[in-house]
Amino acid sequence: MDFTVLYWILVAVMVVGAVGELIPGMPGSSLILGAILVWSVATQFAGITWAIVVVFAILVLSAAIEFMAASWGAKQFGASKWGQYGAIAGLVLGVVGLLPALPFGGPIFGILFGPFIGAFIGELLFRRQQADESKVKVAFKASLGTVLGSFIGNLIDGMLAILAVIIFVATTLPLVSML
């Protein structure tokens, strides 16, 4: 296969990955990492500079951002550790699809609503001695913080993914014409 054709196919996969990072539950960074790995192996690591290695490391770390952002959002809106752990558990359960599947959107709704439901249940369990109205308000507020944190995490992941594609293209495009 011609390296130019392979290159542009991999760039297209990376662009799909960058868009996927903005959508909860889509494998964005793994598509970008896979494309970088395929290009590296195909070219015997020619043109892979420190910039690509740094991008690779950032994308690996960005996998944890979505999980941490949901917990951070819950904490900023007054969630206890129970609410934060509930948000993480809800996200994990949503990712593996243990929330009831809906006729439309199933796993994506699980990823979106899992942290919300998990934080809400965690806060209700933590605040079971409080008056009913008070604990429901606090649990709802913590759940909203979880959703906001997840949204912010997706935006950060998306920006990192776009930056990764830009750096990859800027670093490797001159090499394509030489191969």
Radius of gyration: 20 Å
Specify the overall morphology.
Answer: elongated
| Unreliable segments of 5+ consecutive residues | none
Distance between the termini: 12 Å
Sheet having the most strands: none
Estimate the helix proportion, in percent. over 70%
Topology as H/E string?
A: HHHHHHH
**Average of the residue pLDDT scores:** 81
Question: How many beta strands in the DSSP annotation?
Answer: 0
Q: List the total number of helices.
A: 7
Secondary structure topology:
Elements: H1 3-22, H2 28-42, H3 50-62, H4 65-76, H5 81-96, H6 106-126, H7 132-176
Helix pairs in contact: 1-2, 1-7, 2-3, 2-7, 3-7, 4-5, 4-7, 5-6, 6-7
Concise account of the structure shown:
By secondary structure, the protein is mainly alpha-helical. The chain is built from 7 helices and no strands. It folds into 2 domains: 3-63 and 158-176; 65-154.
Q: What does this molecule look like?
A:
The chain is mainly alpha-helical and 179 residues long. The chain has 2 domains: 80 residues; 90 residues. Helices cover 79% and strands 0% of the residues. The longest helix is centred in the C-terminal third of the chain and has 45 residues. The termini are close together. The relative contact order is 0.19. The mean pLDDT is 81.
